[in-house]
Amino acid sequence: MIKLKRVAVALAALGMISAQAAEVEVLHWWTSGGEAKSAAELKRMIEAKGDKWKDFAVAGGGGENAMTVLKSRVVSGKAPTAAQVKGPSIQEWGAEGTLASLDSVAKAGEWDKLLPGVVANVMKYKGSYVAVPVNVHRVNWMWVNPEVFKKAGADVPKTWADFPAAAEKIQKAGFIAVAHGGQPWQDFTVFESVVLGVGGAQFYNDALVKLDQKALTSPTMEKAFDTFRTVRKYIDKDAANRDWNLATAMVINGKAAMQFMGDWAKGEFTAAGKVPGKDYLCLAAPGTDKSFTFNIDSFIVFKQSAADAAKGQADFANAVMSPEFQEVFNLNKGSIPVRSGVSLAKFDDCAKLSAKDFADTAKSGGLVPSIAHQMAVPAATTGAIQDVVTSFFNSNESSKDAVKKLASAAKTK
Ligand code: GAL
């Protein structure tokens, strides 16, 4: 041990290792084209601070696989420096007592002034910052290939009532109407946009955030399940287990007309060199243009035994909150900056619309947390509701039965 120290001191004196270099191991699930480009920017900035980036990528959209791997790493005493965890789960991890504090970094960086109050609260456990936010994603989008709609002579649906006629025309013209990947989190992503479009933001909030039993079992929820079933008619037979970015590629390549997916899909269009308004359209999912389902990516930091860990975590958090990172990362990711003071000049019209709608819906009450992306209710409840949604989507169960199961799943703690 002592000998090792001596060697380190000697090497440092020779300038061969920097006493300031910390290893920063970051768990995330950003492995698609657009996501990987975004993660690479984070790596670049960490390395620019003289730290060593250790990539801990766990493939799987929506992060379910990543969360399983994270739990086993923490249980075996090998928590990474930082991990992509968001929403109410931050509180759950806080209660485990394994998180480090970012308070001194947050204080020096005046995070309380830079972040919207609702966001800052989610990043804190018992008043202390334990997480740093990356972005604001909007989930209730519809990604459209205008060429396909044109060839099919179909109008882009503005409401869910318009949807079947458009989808029918597209199918008859030989295209796939809805690009989808049959994975539970993708089914759930479509479902929440259907609920929002059918019932409105107030209903969404009562049912999927407050978990009000009356709303969950209401005729409106039944109608949402019926509509959700209609969407299934228009996905292709090979959808099972397809990754979300491959579904996006179908819209990009003109095989499919539309996809209901959060704006990480825009990262794929961007990576493919496509221009919004020309090659593709970003429109609110049917009936949801006055609402905004938000999904905020963030990283929690874990207590570490290495002496230089705090330095690595401070470098990491400072990098994430810097205007430079917030701009370049979100340009690639499809999201918008989460902190104030970042110019949107370089962002496209989809991002500008997102920023405007985020601000407007925060005032109107149309701003709601995405349940499919773990922003609304605890992880166990999210999982139980997702199971109901996905099993309905993949069976011929009646909407009447589904709402009963939904209401009972909502009681899962
Ligand atoms: C979301 C996450 C996004 C995006 C997406 C697909 O849950 O917030 O950043 O990566 O999953 O993997």
TrEMBL record:
Family annotation (Pfam families): SBP_bac_1
Signal peptide region: 1-21
InterPro entries associated with the record: Bact_solute-bd_prot1 (IPR050490), SBP (IPR006059)
Alphabetical UniProt keywords: Signal, Transport
Entry superkingdom: Bacteria
Compartments, record wording: Periplasm
Main location: periplasm
Biological role: Part of a binding-protein-dependent transport system for a sugar.
UniProt similarity note: Belongs to the bacterial solute-binding protein 1 family.
Protein name from the UniProt record: Probable sugar-binding periplasmic protein
Source organism per UniProt: Uliginosibacterium sediminicola
